[in-house]
């Protein structure tokens, strides 16, 4: 059942620095479940009991939360090899967010208690697994902190600017495609779609940037940075 995913799992951060045989032994010990979901199907529901740490084996998923006002906020979009539920697994043991299938997808769920618990004596590399998990949780905490800072901004222009500057740094290019469509970007920034479109149009008219759908070009980097001052 796990054999077809071995080579792919070897590339995932959770299993870095592990030999293939160590990973095979670990999968035998952890006995993760593999489930498939259709596009738009709900994978987890915020507030319900956590069922395991999820790894995206195929497809894409969206992590979202609902505000007290009932607005949906997209926290992130995950693709192959990325994890979800790892923070909740070692804290509340309750799903902290709702996870939805953005496309048809396949998810592998690992029981968190076995990751931090005593592993089978024949399973080597467990210490490495725990170190990898701690590093992943630490990085997720930093990303969550960045998200909180983004949502705390009151200006739509500031939110757009900080998001596009992050994409610029990720791609190391003034021209890039963002992973969100316009509706999803509005939900990610927690602004209305019309307000987002209007502000993007204003920034385009001012010669700061250009765009078509999810393709963006930063025309004046210094002007974009100045939006945050």
Keywords, please?
alpha+beta, 4-stranded antiparallel sheet, 229 residues, 11 strands, 9 helices
Description:
The chain is built from nine helices and eleven strands. 27% of the residues are buried. By secondary structure, it is an alpha+beta fold. The strands form three sheets. The chain has a four-stranded antiparallel sheet. It has helices spanning 6-9, 20-30, 86-89, 112-116, 126-152, 156-171, 182-189, 193-205, 221-226; strands at residues 33-37, 42-44, 53-58, 61-66, 72-78, 83-84, 98-101, 105-110, 175-177, 209-212, 215-218. The N and C termini lie far apart (54 Å). The mean pLDDT is 90.
- Estimated structural class: alpha+beta
Order of helices and strands: HHEEEEEEHEEHHHEHHEEH
Q: Helical region count? A: 9
The major pleated sheet works out as: 4 strands, antiparallel
**Helix content range of the residues, please?**
40-55%
């Amino acid at each position: 059942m796990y054999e077809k995913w071995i080579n792919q799992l070897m590339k995932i951060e959770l299993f870095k620095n592990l030999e293939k045989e160590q990973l095979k032994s670990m999968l035998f010990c952890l006995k993760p479940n593999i489930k498939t979901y259709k596009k738009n199907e709900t994978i987890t529901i915020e507030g319900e009991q956590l069922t395991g740490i999820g790894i995206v084996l195929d497809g894409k998923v969206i992590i979202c939360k609902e505000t007290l006002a009932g607005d949906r906020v997209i926290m992130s979009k995950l693709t192959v090899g990325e994890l979800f539920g790892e923070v909740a697994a070692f804290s509340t043991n309750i799903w902290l967010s709702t996870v939805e299938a953005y496309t048809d997808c396949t998810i592998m769920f690992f029981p968190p208690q076995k990751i931090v618990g005593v592993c089978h004596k024949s399973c080597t590399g467990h210490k490495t697994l725990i170190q990898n998990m701690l590093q992943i949780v630490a990085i997720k905490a930093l990303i969550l902190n960045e998200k909180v800072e983004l949502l705390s901004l009151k200006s739509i222009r500031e939110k757009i600017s900080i998001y596009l500057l992050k994409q610029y740094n990720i791609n190391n290019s003034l021209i890039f495609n963002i992973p969100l469509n316009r509706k999803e970007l509005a939900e990610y920034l927690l602004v209305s779609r019309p307000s987002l479109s209007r502000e993007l149009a204003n920034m385009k008219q001012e010669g700061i940037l250009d765009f078509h759908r999810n393709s963006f070009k930063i025309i004046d980097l210094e002007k974009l940075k100045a939006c945050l001052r």
